[in-house]
Amino acid sequence: MKKPEGIDELTDRERAREYLRGKLKEYVETITERDPAHRHFYKCPFCGNEEHKNSTAGAFSIAADKKRWKCFSCQKSGDIFDLIGYQYNYKSDKRTKTAKTEEYRQEYAKACEIFKLDPDFTPPQDQDTAQAAKEDSRTLQIQPATDTITDNRAGQFKEYLESCKAAMQGSKCYAYLIGRGFTPETIERFSLGYDSKKDLLTIPYSPAYSYYATRSIEGKSYDKPDTETAGPEPVFNAGALYGERSCFICESQLDAISIMQAGGVAAAVGGTGVEKLLKALDEKKTQHCLILCLDNDDAGRTAQTTAEERLDNSGIDFIDASFSLDLYPQPQKDSNDLLRGNAEQLAVDVEEIYKNAKEHELETGSGLYAVKDFAGLFKKHRQEFKQNIRTGFTSLDIALGGGLTNELYIMSAETGTGKSAIAACLAQNIAAQGIDVLYYALEMGRDEFIARGASMISKEQGTDPIMYGQILNDTYDSETDQFYRRPYSQYEKYVNEYMQRYGQHLYFIEGGLHGKTALEIAETVEHFKKIRKVKQLVIIVDYLQLLKADPEDRSQRDAMSIISAAVFTLKSLASQYGATIYAISSMSNAQKGSKVGDSSFKYSGDIGYTGGVLLGWNWQGVTDTSKEEDKEKAIQESKDHGYRTMILEVIKNRSGERDKKVTMFYYPQYNYIKAPNLDSGTVKPHRKGAGA
To answer: Which in 209, 245, 454, 654 has the greatest CB count within 10 A?
Structure first.
């Protein structure tokens, strides 16, 4: 077969360009100043770090491979040729093929002039260059296959695939791959071959030669060996799923190879389905989040949505690949289109996506990282203006060190003292601020919850208060000796006010016939945060002792083990998903009649050790004393006043002061709570958008 024209010239020129790309750092240090504290950063020669002028670090960065650069101030990026193009104004606004060719010619010629090289020079293969090539080859090397079936058939296609590989050099298939943006090194590295009899590209799935696919170079039709001979199709480059970096998941094998040529690690599912991927990950879990990179067309977007749902349901962590599409010419359907359109930008984008994947793993705790890796994320969190969540009671916010944060709060109280009332009150105050609240009511129905809220507002407004029992139950009329239901019109305005204040951001979840487990709560929260993309979320569990055991966990056999597992799950939910968890814990029968203290959290599970903030809810004169005469007196005074004097005490605070006490007045018939005003000492009810 005749050798296609231009192959040798293209190969030699590309090798020369690669050699010059390796001169980037050397050239940068001749045109700008290095940041003394950050060895990969410099002052930008174009914008002078304008957007980062108040920062101590340079904004112009050289990537780890020393072949790419980016300014995080003016957002310019590229390789040494782009740098020269910007510097000498070779860049054109015209994006035609002719204009781009002229840019490349000028940039290449100038680079050769700068380094005193003939444009037709042959790059030297010195020891450093050879070592760099070796390291690059190792980085991009296809990973060993891990599919059990594939391994059992290792080598079955070796003779055929090696003969195809030998036929590749100089073939029209070779020209086809060069035209698709692949380098000679990539063609060699992945053992791509050419079946000259069938005029097909051959793509081995692993170095074991246990499976392969073919592709027509005239179109986009793929073929695979029959299942009886080869066995079921595995994931292409399946070993990449278990490497030291997150793995890109692509549709086609050439898309995955494109990502790997750009510096990433990738596997391919051979279409729009993810069944093979899920099967592989079910047999062996990956240690890093996946990067979904399916095609940018209607079928690909549909497949992306399906893949996200399947991975999410399987508990597999992932992010979506996001490319700077405005920097690529059309077409932009897949990663191979991006490689052909702008290989340098694809390398920059791949590295940026890896940064996003790492930050995602740091945020969710799904990766294994040293403390030093959290430095940037910690700075970001502290610089973001994310206030503590206000409770609606200024005195309580002060006692808690500014309000609620991403922590597990556990409040212990005796049954019948209003523990659900204070929880509902906090939920409503927080929802009124526009922050979503998931209220898990494991013993209360939805109608009762709303009735309590409407009654609370009627008492707050003070004109015609209605007890929530009068909303839920029939009322007896002694004159007629009949029961009657209070007309809805008498309290409709309070229900409407309740819905207006809290209805949009307050979610009420009932226990249902089978109850809830802590793991079910965690899964709902994870899904809610992903769908709603909220930064702040509050979960209230009313109450811990009603949580059910996880049927998959045989260690949860009694109340203590169930609660221990539950608080551990809720604690992890608070710390890893940035949620505020407020859980109620009921006291044991043995402890009833005694003040809520440290010991109240030790009788069931690991509450006292796991909870970040422990709160005690005591009825002054009743649950905080052992003298029966004092109890009777306080109970009678409460009946006379119409309210109970409650003390909410901070018993433990991992990141703040303990032993802080807040006095509150609780009107049990109206589910209404208010606190003394800090300044005047007068009573001021909580309202939407205001403290108490």
So the answer is: 454
Mean pLDDT of the region 158-166: 92
Residue among 297, 290, 275, 422 at smallest CA distance from 356:
290
- The reply to whether 88 and 153 lie within a common domain is no
- Any domain includes 571: yes
Q: Could you say which of 80, 114, 148 is where a domain stops? A: 114
Q: Is residue 455's pLDDT more than 70?
A: yes
Token output for 217? 């170079």
Report the Cα 481 to chain-centroid distance in Å: 62
364 vs 317, which has greater pLDDT?
317
**Is residue 690 in a domain?**
no
Q: Are residues 22 and 56 in the same domain?
A: yes
The domain in which residue 99 lies consists of: 7-114
Rounded distance, CA 169 to CA 171, Å?
A: 6
* Measured distance CA(675)–CA(435) in Å, rounded: 22
Beta carbons of 469 and 538 less than 8 angstroms apart = no
Asked if residue 246 and residue 97 are part of one domain, the reply reads no
> For residue 511, what are the CA distances in angstroms to 273, 443, 543?
36, 7, 11
Single-letter amino acid, residue 231: G
Q: Say which residues have a Cβ less than 8 Å from residue 657's Cβ, sequence separation at least 6.
A: 399, 401, 650
Residues 334, 450: one domain?
no
Distance CA 573, CA 554 (A): 21
DSSP secondary structure of 309-351: HHHHHTT--EEE----GGGSPSP-SSHHHHHHH-HHHHHHHHH
Q: Could you tell me if residue 35 is inside a domain?
A: yes
Q: Strand pairing of 644-653 and 193-195? A: unpaired
Residue 563 DSSP one-character state: H
**434 within a domain of the structure (yes/no):** yes
Collapsing DSSP to helix, strand or coil, 82 comes out as helix
What is the value of pTM for the model shown?
A: 0.55
- How far apart (Å, rounded) are the C-alpha atoms in residues 69 and 61? 5
- Residues 294 and 337 placed together within one structural domain of the fold: yes
What digits encode the pLDDT tens for the residues 581-639? 999 998 766 667 678 877 777 655 568 778 889 999 999 999 888 888 888 999 999 99
Q: Enumerate the β-bridge partners of residue 526.
A: none
